[in-house]
Write a structure and sequence with these properties.
Blueprint: H1 6-36, H2 42-49, H3 53-58, H4 60-71, H5 86-125, H6 132-179
Helix pairs in contact: 1-2, 1-4, 5-6
């Protein structure tokens, strides 16, 4: 093999040195993100390290480290355990909103039942109450309405459980898919 021109050799060494400096900055950015619990994504790490995202895609080992760190739960600065993420807060908020809506609907149904019961009581005490069989039918209707409410609440709880299971399944599939990304020819 013929020796390279000194100018070409100098350019190759300069390129290698530049790549080494960039790799060091990416590794430092990953380390800092782990320490302070900040966002770990390809864009965030590239921005923090001052490199282009394509640099990370050309260096699959660095990309793998970014994805591995992003898959781990973030930690609170100081190593006090997992931090609360924006996604977990949004999930908690959505669950609280759904529960609030269910409770508001239940309060409306209970207010209607109370109003009806008080109206019935006033009607009976006034002496103009209906025949006994009407009272039995109304009691049966009340029992059936309560059963419907109970079944609706049970169904809503199961829907919530199913939605949570689906979310967990999507997250697990995303993690699995990230672990099996094809390697590029650039390595």
């Amino acid at each position: 093999m013929t020796p390279l021109d000194p100018a070409v050799q100098a350019m190759l060494e300069g390129r290698r040195a530049d790549t080494g400096r960039r790799r060091s900055r990416v590794l430092a950015a990953l380390s800092e993100a782990a320490k302070d619990g900040s966002d770990v994504s390809v864009a965030a790490i590239a921005r923090r390290a001052g490199v282009d995202r394509t640099f990370l895609y050309r260096h699959r080992d660095l990309l793998g480290q970014v994805h591995a760190q992003a898959a781990e739960p973030p930690t609170v600065p100081g190593g006090r355990g997992p931090a609360v993420s924006r996604a977990s807060l949004q999930t908690d908020l959505a669950a609280a909103d759904a529960r609030t809506a269910r409770l508001a609907a239940q309060v409306r149904r209970l207010e209607a039942r109370l109003s009806e019961a008080l109206g019935e009581q006033v009607w009976r005490e006034s002496g103009i109450g209906g025949p006994d069989d009407t009272e039995q039918l109304k009691a049966r209707i009340t029992t059936l309405e309560q059963q419907v409410v109970d079944l609706e609440l049970t169904l809503q709880d199961r829907d919530d459980d199913l939605a949570a299971a689906r979310t967990a399944n999507r997250e697990l599939m995303a993690q699995l898919n990230r672990g099996y990304e094809p390697f590029s020819k650039g390595q």
